Input
Amino acid sequence: MHDVVFKGARIIDGLGNPEMSGEVAVKDGRVVEIGSSVGSAETVVDADGAVLAPGIVDTHTHYDAQLTWDSTASPSPSLGVTTVVMGNCGFAIAPCPPEHRELVAANLSIVEGMDLSALTAGIDWGFESFPEYMDMLRAKGVYPNTAVLAGHSVTRTAIMGKEASEREVPSEAQMNAMKSAVQEALDAGAIGFATSFSPNHLGAGGRPMPSTIASDDEVRQLAGLMNGREHGVMQIAAGRRGTVDLLETFVEASGKPIFITAALTMYNEAHPEKSMEMMEQCQAARGRGHEIYAQVTCQPLSFDFNPANPYPFYSHDAFADIKAKPPEVLAAAYADESFRNAFKANLANPQAGVIFYGNWDRVEVAVPALASNAGLQNRSFADIGRERGTDPVDVFCDLALEEKLETTIVGRFLNVDEDGVGPILRHDSGVISLSDAGAHLIFMCDAGFGCHFLSRWVRERGEFDLVEGIRRLTSHPADLYGLRDRGRISVGSHADLMLFDPTEIGISKPHRISDLPGGGTRAIRESSGIHGVWVNGAKVFGEGGYADLDKGPGHVLTEFGR
Output
C-alpha cells in the first residue's frame, strides 16, 4: 500500500513535458508510480482537477538564523516553496566562535535588514563550526529541504573578528585558517561558496561587510577549494567590481558554475540596455566554457525604509561617510547643504549598478510620522517637490528632519517596467530567484516570487505557458544547482509537491505581524489558490495552515550532482 495517492490531478511534471491527467503515488518520501490508476494508499488526496506540480525551488534565501528558532522557514512553504538554498552573499551564522556572536548578529541586522533584538533573542548558538550547525539543523528538523552555502563574510569574521571589515589582506595564518574553515564546510555538505563585492552591503556601524574588501586572489583561493570536487556552485553579489571577465577567472579557479546577483541584471528605465548587456555577457562566457548565470527576479524591486536607515541610497558617494551611522549623524548630514548638493550631483550622474537612479516619482511617503503631514501619504517626492517648487532631495531631507527620521518611505527602484523585464526572464542566462526570503523583514517580503510568477507572468501576461512556467521554478534551478531528484514529478523523484488552482494562485500585499522572537515585527504575505504543499511526501502546509509535525520532513541536503 502506498503512503499517499493523488487522484484526479492535472499533472505537470516540472520537466517541460505536456500536462497529463492521472494519479501519483508516493511511498517513503518518493514518487513510486504515475498512471491512470496507481492503487490504494493510507491517505488519498482528491485533487479535483487542480494542478499537481513540483514544489518551488528558491535558490536565494537567508533563513540561516531563522531556522534555529523556526523550523517551518515561514512563510516560504505557505507560498509553495519546498527547497531553499541559504547562506547567499556569504552572510550566514556558521562558523562562529562565541566571542564573535554579537558581531555576526549585528552585521546581519544591518546588511539583511533583520531585527537585532529578534536575532539576539532567537538565535540558538548551540554550535561553533559549520558541521555543528548542520548537525543542529538536522536535530531540530526543517520543513523545507535546505541547502547551505559556505559564507565568505561569516568565515572571515570567525577568523579575523572586527579586522575582517578593516584589513584587506589577511595574514598567512588567517588565510590558511579561512581555507581550512571553507574546506571543512564543503566536507560537511555545503552546496558551494558564496561571497559579495556589493558596495551596498554594509554591516554594523556602517563598516563594509568583510568579503567586500577582500582581494580577488582571496576569493579565487577560497572558491578554488571546490576544484576537483564532484559538485559545487558559487554565488556572488557582484556589484560594479564583479565584471564577467573577473568572474570567469573564478570559474577557472573553481571549475564550478557561478550565479551572480546584481542590480545590473534588473531592468532599469534610466539605462534600459544594461540588463540585457549583462545577460548577453553571461551567455558569451558560457560559450567560452565558463558557466555564469544571473539570478533574476520576476518582481519589482521595492523597499520600505526610513531616513534613519536609507539603505537604498547607500551606493551613492554622498552617503559614503554616513552609511548605517546613528540617527544623529544622518540628521546632521540632511541639514547640511553640502551633503544635499553632493546627493543631487550623484543622482544627476549615477554610477552603473546603483539601486536608485534618481526617479523620485517612484519614491513615496508611505506613512508620515506626524498627523499634520497626513496629506503627504501615498504621494511621491517628485510630486511634492513640484507642488512646492523644491528639489525632491530637499523634500526628502526636510521631511526627514521634521519627522525625526521616522517617516516610512516606499521606493520602487528596479524591474518596474514589465515590458523591459520580460526579455530578462526569458533569457537563457537567467535563473528565476532572488526572493531574499528570511531577510529584510523590517521592510519587505518577496518570499512569494513563485506565486507572483505564476499569477502575473503566466496567467495574466501569458509570457510563459503553465508547463514552461512551472519548469522555470522547479527543475531548471534544481538541475543547475545539482539538487538531485528535486523539482520534478517522475518515478524515483523526491515527493516535493504543490497542489494549486492556476486560475487563483497569487500573493497578497505585504502586511505586518509581530511574531518574531522578543515580539519583533516583520512583513509577510499569504498565497491564494494553493491547496497543499508536501515535502518528501509529508504535508507541511494546507488550507488550514502549517501542519503540526513533531519534526520537519525536509532534508538538510549534503549530496548533490549535475
